[in-house]
Amino acid sequence: MTNRAAFSKPVCIALVGWLLASRPVLLLADEPTLEFLDEGKSVQVLTREDLAEKIPVTGLTVENPTTSQAASYQGAALTALLSRVYGDRWKSAGLVKFETRDGYQPVVPVANINQHSGLMAYADAGQDRLQAIGDGHGGTVDPGPFYLVWENIRDSSAKKDPWLQWPWQLAKVELTSIEREYPQTAPPPGAPESVMRGLNGFISHCAKCHQINGEGGAIGPELNYPVNVTEYWQNDWLPKFIANPQAIRHNSKMVGYQSASPEKSAEIDDIVAYLRAMKDRKLPPRK
Predict the structure, then answer these.
(1) What DSSP letter does each residue of 168-218 carry, written as one string?
(2) Fewest CB atoms within 10 A around its CB: which of 7, 52, 81, 135?
């Protein structure tokens, strides 16, 4: 008994020491990451600590659109981050797609990214992480681990740019193009100018949540295949719903059409014209 006890004690101590030594590795393996892709091919995966180590920490105060209040964040400047991961390659890409954990997939043209100051935020100023914010529906949400925000106080034009999105809970960033992302979304050949304007409006406002022929975000319903939305929505009510969903459907999670343009109603009409035109171009989703 004495020999067995003498033998088991150092073994137990060694085992406990091994577990304690191993625990940080397990925690790091579970740490949230942000994956970067180039047209579907994974390029790099970074943790928050990686971002802080590789790119100077930048502070930015913005007016958060979900709360209409000033908020200060810390993170990596978006253009510096893209250059660190992709080199100059990102500057020649057409679009950058931001994918969240729940399937929200907004795209932002590279030209618009260059026109404004974006920040890949990973902490509130003076904090070690992002704090909960209003979700725009009366509740709160944890925007972490990564939240894309834009300087819109000094740059008032950022509030009017329909391409600028504020996705939270980011999981992936991808270089892509309109041709690659939306080959099945283009309207039938010979479509009038209003339909083409509606296509641009749909991609900038709607495709982050909705799909056409399987292309777009995965939060909202598919709008064209197998049945086009204009085939089961009344003509008078669809534009009203796009403009203000909560006025039509109680507790709707859809965000109303956001535009500072005085031509907002005409822009919505163009999107409806595009949707109506797509009923003649129903294609099975590729995936």
Answers:
(1) -SEEEEEEE-HHHH-TTTSPPTT--HHHHHHHHHIIIIITTT-EETTEE-S
(2) 7
Stretches where the chain sits below pLDDT 50 are: 1-29
Judge whether 239 and 161 are in contact, CB under 8 Å: no
Helix/strand/coil for 4: helix
Helices (H) and strands (E) in the chain, counts: 8, 13
Residues 127 and 168 both lie in one domain: yes
Give, in order, the Cα–Cα distances in Å from 67 to each of 25, 137, 140, 221. Answer: 38, 10, 10, 26
Residue reference for tokens 């109506």: 276
Rounded distance, CA 198 to CA 118, Å?
A: 27
Assess if residue 26 is contained within a domain.
Answer: no
Distance from the first to the final alpha carbon of the chain: 65
How far, in Å, CA of 199 to CA of 207, rounded?
A: 10
Of 106, 122, 134, 136, the closest CA to residue 34 belongs to 122
Domain ranges, residue 224? 182-280
pLDDT at 260: 67
Angle between helices 264-277 and 193-201 (to 10 degrees): 100
* Entry pTM: 0.74
C-alpha–C-alpha distance, residues 104 and 107, integer Å:
10
DSSP-derived pairing of the beta strands 33-38 and 170-176 = parallel
Decide if 119 contacts 112 (C-beta within 8 A). no
Statement to judge: residues 37 and 113 lie in one domain: yes
